[in-house]
Amino acid sequence: MIELTGHSLTIDQMKRILIAEEKVSISENSMEEVYESRCAVEQIVADKETVYGINTGFGKFSDVIINQKDVENLQLNLIRSHACGVGDPFPEIVSRAMMVLRLNALIKGFSGVRGELVELLAELINKSIHPVIPQQGSLGASGDLAPLAHLALVLIGEGKVYDNSGKIIDSAAIFSEKEVQPITLQAKEGLALINGTQAMVAKGVVNYIEAEQLAFDSEWIAAMTMEGLEGIVDVFHPAIHEARGYPQQVDVAKRMQEWLEGSKLTTRQGEKRVQDAYSLRCIPQVHGASWQALDYVKEKLEIEMNAATDNPLIFEEGKVVISGGNFHGQPIAFAMDFLKIAVAELANISERRTERLVNPQLNELPAFLSPEPGLQSGAMIMQYAAASLVSENKTLAHPASVDSIPSSANQEDHVSMGMTASRHAGMMIQNARRVLAIECICALQAVEYQGVENVSPKLKKKWEKMRGFIPSITKDRVFSEDIEKVNQVLNPLHQNNSVLEKEICIK
């Protein structure tokens, strides 16, 4: 059970909530904050004060005063009208993340919602009732309005959810089955549910979990390639990396040494050649730079995961109510664009290593790792596929955060496109993992040609595990099936994998 406080949620806790579907609870102090904040809203309503989102319209309609008898309809109309997302739905894990993050934001006590609402959110999370939320339609500035509106629909007993088999059904059906009571939204609650960055951050958290594992996996796969190409291990000497000073670079070099310790396939400088190509020699520098970006992304995500991004926010027991712009997703838009670049480079350098494994002009292995060069093509077209994926990533890496388009009659005249950045980052991670899968298949074959008995003890275990999924290339076959198998093995979110177990193995 993870206790949510609104202030202390971490990526590691999110892994437990998302992967293991660990349940959540709300701290007593947070519930007190929720209660006090709600009292302030009810006092505003009773005193007939004019406050944005409580008794006014929204966006360009902010100057329209709403009659007190219409306050509930105002919130209901808001959710229905804003639920105009399009495209394929997010995976369930992203939907679950959105619910957790929205709950964590509301219990900070700045949003003025009732205890019943946050308790309902927690109940849905703990009963694994996940809304079906279309991926497209958010500008990432007035909050992720469209995606969060689809989440809010479920709280009022409308909209769609996933059942236990992953089938999409009406929320009313699952509510009846699991004895859940929908809620009638009161003053401010609809706005509080949809103002925020929780869609882009939820996708960003899932992206980070996948990208972090991708970065770890890229190291042992690169190490196996080093063995397949009899690479020079002097390049991982700690003195080189300490001389430059980047801790992430130092860490990558250290892990590479650990993966290759005891190998009889690697060489020293001058034994076979003086220097390797950059894709081998500069692994710590390139991978380390990607780790720097990942560290930045994690820092920003963990701040935003615990941020109040509603509007307006309520302070000092209702004495101060301020309309601001914490819903603007620019920090996460930048972080996701940075993540895209980091992931692109892990894939770029991996594809270049694959080229070195299959190109007979660059190694002493059979051409294209083919069992019968000429008659059988071997890994030739796998490298084509990798090249295609890294080229596609280069187009997706174009920053979404530098774009903006006005909305709401120019009231909302600068937007972040953070949701777009987050979605594109997710697409790039899928591409990059398949590029690594291709390098992995080629590296497995290369060390087999070189002599598996000479592989380092740590990599021998990896080789044996992967050979349980991917047989040796003894003749040409449909390699796309092999690529997908490795992709699934490397995917920390795949149903047969455990992120927590993989991390223990890594560390």
UniProtKB/TrEMBL annotation:
Q: Which residues carry this modification: 2,3-didehydroalanine (Ser)?
A: 142
What reaction gets catalysed by this protein?
L-histidine = trans-urocanate + NH4(+)
Localisation: Cytoplasm
**Which keywords does this Swiss-Prot/TrEMBL entry list?**
Cytoplasm, Histidine metabolism, Lyase
> How does the record describe the protein's post-translational processing?
Contains an active site 4-methylidene-imidazol-5-one (MIO), which is formed autocatalytically by cyclization and dehydration of residues Ala-Ser-Gly.
Q: Which Gene3D superfamilies match?
A: Fumarase/aspartase (Central domain) (1.20.200.10), Fumarase/aspartase (N-terminal domain) (1.10.275.10)
Domain of life, per the record? Answer: Bacteria
Keyword Cytoplasm, does the record have it?
yes
Q: What is its EC number?
A: 4.3.1.3
Keyword Transcription on entry: no
Q: Name one GO molecular function term.
A: histidine ammonia-lyase activity
Signal peptide stretch: none
Specify the cross-link site (5-imidazolinone (Ala-Gly)): 141-143
Named in its record, the pathway it takes part in is: Amino-acid degradation; L-histidine degradation into L-glutamate; N-formimidoyl-L-glutamate from L-histidine: step 1/3
| Pfam families reported in the protein's UniProt record | Lyase_aromatic
Which family is this protein grouped under? Belongs to the PAL/histidase family.
Q: Spell out the PANTHER family in the cross-references.
A: HISTIDINE AMMONIA-LYASE
This protein is called Histidine ammonia-lyase
Q: Its encoding gene is what? A: hutH
